[in-house]
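Please check this protein record:
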Amino acid sequence: PARVNINFVELMPVTQTFGPLTIHREG
């Protein structure tokens, strides 16, 4: 699960950059 954690941490900034794109992906 360590890799998943890193992915989430890297996704954090992506969420601010993409915003709606991340929401659509998570949704």
